[in-house]
Amino acid sequence: MTVLVYSKLKKLAEKGCWDVAEARINENRQLLEYLVYLAMEAGYMEKVEELCERYSLEGFINVKELEGSIPKHRYLQLDELSIKEVVWVDEANGLLDATRHIEEYKVVGIDCEWKPNYEKGSSPNKVIFG
């Protein structure tokens, strides 16, 4: 497969044109697996499940089951951090306290995560507090 074919599939996926991308793969197994990977990467698990069911794909990990099976102790805990100037904000109400704390600093780093939105013309998704 050429890089051009993969690039076109990626652009279609970024625009949310899943049906057009699926039509372009012509049931090519390698391209189909790449399309499923793109859907997984973008967080469209419904599309992943749909493609896997339609084409009887096996071997793709059910991410929901995987997330449920990961023990909580594998995540980094706040008390394990040795940096003293970290303000942990995990809810909207904690943002006010964090704002008071960081007002005295010239440089502030913020790490946020949210589900990407690849649909052209739609508003971006909001930051997830959870």
TrEMBL record:
InterPro entries given in the database record: Exonuclease_MUT-7-like, RNaseH-like_sf, RNaseH_sf
Gene3D superfamilies: Ribonuclease H-like superfamily/Ribonuclease H (3.30.420.10)
Molecular function terms, GO-annotated: nucleic acid binding
Protein's UniProt name: 3'-5' exonuclease domain-containing protein
Origin species: Capsicum baccatum (Peruvian pepper)
